[in-house]
Amino acid sequence: xxxxxxxxxxxxxxxxxxxxxxxxxxxxxxxxxxxxxxxxxxxxxxxxxxxxxxxxxxxxxxxxxxxxxxxxxxxxxxxxxxxxxxxxxxxxxxxxxxxxxxxxxxxxxxxxxxxxxxxxxxxxxxxxxxxxxxxxxxxxxxxxxxxxxxxxxxxxxxxxxxxxxxxxxxxxxxxxxxxxxxxxxxxxxxxxxxxxxxxxxxxxxxxxxxxxxxxxxxxxxxxxxxxxxxxxxxxxxxxxxxxxxxxxxxxxxxxxxxxxxxxxxxxxxxxxxxxxxxxxxxxxxxxxxxxxxxxxxxxxxxxxxxxxxxxxxxxxxxxxxxxxxxxxxxxxxxxxxxxxxxxxxxxxxxxxxxxxxxxxxxxxxxxxxxxxxxxxxxxxxxxxxxxxxxxxxxxxxxxxxxxxxxxxxxxxxxxxxxxxxxxxxxxxxxxxxxxxxxxxxxxxxxxxxxxxxxxxxxxxxxxxxxxxxxxxxxxxxxxxxxxxxxxxxxxxxxxxxxxxxxxxxxxxxxxxxxxxxxxxxxxxxxxxxxxxxxxxxxxxxxxxxxxxxxxxxxxxxxxxxxxxxxxxxxxxxxxxxxxxxxxxxxxxxxxxxxxxxxxxxxxxxxxxxxxxxxxxxxxxxxx
Length: 623
Ligand SMILES: Nc1ncnc2c1ncn2[C@@H]1O[C@H](COP(=O)(O)OP(=O)(O)OP(=O)(O)O)[C@@H](O)[C@H]1O
Ligand SMILES: [Zn+2]
Known about the structure:
Elements: H1 3-11, H2 14-19, E1 22-26, H3 30-41, E2 46-51, H4 75-83, E3 91-96, H5 106-109, E4 114-117, H6 122-135, E5 139-145, E6 148-154, E7 173-174, H7 175-179, H8 185-196, E8 220-221, H9 226-246, H10 254-271, H11 288-294, H12 312-336, H13 352-368, H14 376-383, H15 391-410, E9 417-421, E10 429-433, E11 447-453, H16 460-471, E12 478-482, E13 485-488, E14 510-515, E15 524-530, E16 542-544, H17 589-594
Parallel strand pairs: 1-2, 1-4, 2-3, 4-5, 7-8, 11-15
Antiparallel strand pairs: 5-6, 6-9, 9-10, 11-16, 12-13, 12-14, 14-15
Helix pairs in contact: 3-15, 8-13, 9-10, 12-13, 13-14
Adenosine-5'-triphosphate is lined by residues 27-30, 32, 50-53, 58-59, 75, 98-100, 119-121, 124, 389, 576.
């Protein structure tokens, strides 16, 4: 029987609507590949796929549309080409691009029946959430972390949006914890990674051994309390000392100089700060000669054993050997470089030399501070911020997305669910009713309006005077914020004559208007539609499409703002995937109680998927 007949039998009248639908899939990674296959096999007629990345060797174990020969090619383009074979009649469009690019305007989003998020980062998720709210298109948001997965249906005005609940943001550590008082293996790993290597993203620091970066790691907390600023000053002094040591790179004495500085002298200096050790165990410096004698029998091949936690002597050998390998790589690069470029080596979890070095130096530091050392394998996970991705979780999550999409296509939002997948609960798949929008949400409680501008002419003054004060009746007290920060408030009048374009406002940008009067109106999100045509025929350089309703704000504080979490014992993971907790899907008691008639949760994280016995072992897809 033809596939269409099966679809009609199982989906009834919905089959036709699905075939005529036009949907957008954002992300062609772990969930995205599975979802694309599901959408095609479910007969969705037109699918647009976007992904900014190219295929990597490490994607092949789970992103099944990709093969070895596709490495370095665009994920979106390859996904389209390969998946087209499942359903040759479907219309597929692929974009090798960032969803945040200005070509993907609100008007473009509005052409889709459903948008599916299969992303791995907060920023892109937030952007799509805002665009879907502005375009009033339903969004199916999904994410996985190891064995956990979740799917959330988002519809403007009816359900919570992605930002209605607070999200955990990447953790950072106070500089003083990393530099002087580490207490966890991760503190030593962050130190080895960020202090000895330049980092690719962040702000200023120059205390690295393998080159000097203009930037600093986001893993450091730079808030200027007294303890921190003293540490930052120390960092500057040490930068100078390391600079001198760098001069001897490539010579026989290099390893000893580095070792003596970071594992002996710096530690003795730290130990001398007695106040610091009143409530903590003081660090014990290491001795180069002693370790050299103790490790004469250790082969350098020990570094290949990534499961074993190396002894201090083994760490010492790997330290010297990897330092030598890295120096040999850097030296010729430096000699060949002209004056303008300064070659550097940066940490990369997949670069064995840098990983060996970080493992060994982090472990030597851990020994000094009486912290448990870690295997190279564990160090790789922690230093590389790796969250295991599991093919089965992705596949199950992608299938749940399609089941929710059917409800969205039918307009049955009362039937749509927040669904989550977990390993240790009584059932593998659980669901919750969708919550109404949070009235204090900084995103969806805002009014939304489209602002048409001629980018060549429209100024901040045009927006403030003609639109906000004259058309929308704003008083004097309000501010304008874009992604790059505040562009106007009553004390920042210098920007008034500037063109919006020169302040980074382009097509698909958002400008948030925050009313600061005594009884403020809700925030207003202005979604920019920039078009040079708009300036033609003597039109105003800036117009608003329709006057939005701007009620007063509710008087309760806003709970959904992001929180900065510093100095915790958790890995400084730039958390890529959304966890159940982030989604407001706590795996705690509340939810277990809500799942009626099922056995008790069976342990925490240590058991395989437990299915509900009362249903004959069936996985309950939905309540
Ligand atoms: N702003 C964005 N625009 C378009 N695609 C994006 C954007 N941000 C992330 N993506 C894509 O979303 C996908 C997420 O997939 P996934 O979580 O499987 O990540 P991955 O990078 O493929 O794998 P891993 O991070 O586990 O190595 C990636 O392919 C990534 O390129
Ligand atoms: Zn919201």
